[in-house]
Amino acid sequence: MLRILVVEDEKAIANLIKMNLSAEGYFCSVAYDGKRAADLIEENTYDLILLDIMLPEIDGYELLAYIRPTNTPVIFITAKGSVEDRIKGLRLGADDYIVKPFQIGELLARVEAILRRTGKMTTEYEIFDVVVNTESRTVKKNGEFIELTVKEFDLLVELIRNKNVALYREHLYEKVWNEPFMGETRTIDSHIQRIRKKLDWDEHIKTVFRVGYRLEV
Ligand code: CA
To answer: Which listed CATH number (3.40.50.2300, 3.40.50.800, 3.40.50.12780, 3.30.70.100) goes with 3-117?
Structure first.
């Protein structure tokens, strides 16, 4: 599930965006101020961040500087519609810019466009001799279908989307099981074991000491 963070201090707008994104099938979190947003960005990974400029505590420009190193795409959402603000936002590295008030349909279209442009919406991945399709939720190895459980599949996709990145067990658990991690290391470990076995990926899915796992490509 693609994760989107909405940073917006006008709660009515933030909640409206969240409601619509959730209805489209995105996993959506909300921060009502810049400080909270910074905390969430530090603790989680997002596929896209919708960022208001005028915010309490830390403003959107400052947050953008903080987000840039994570390579997470950003769409500025703001009442400031002047050309200078638009240029400043884009120059600072925002991927797109939307001016309030906007139609929710326009926002959804831009979200989708950015996710496509940045490769987040890719539905088929080819890695080694394995082809994973997130639309049909199928896995093929050397042209043969491999049966994975729902969680095994989601875990595999998470590893693939973050290939060559060491992923914490906690992150994997929260992303795939969608609930807080309470130390269920064995759940993660046994799922990883089964994926390795089914795909014959023992050497590709590395155990990272004290962290978790990394798909090495
Ligand atoms: Ca605001």
So the answer is: 3.40.50.2300
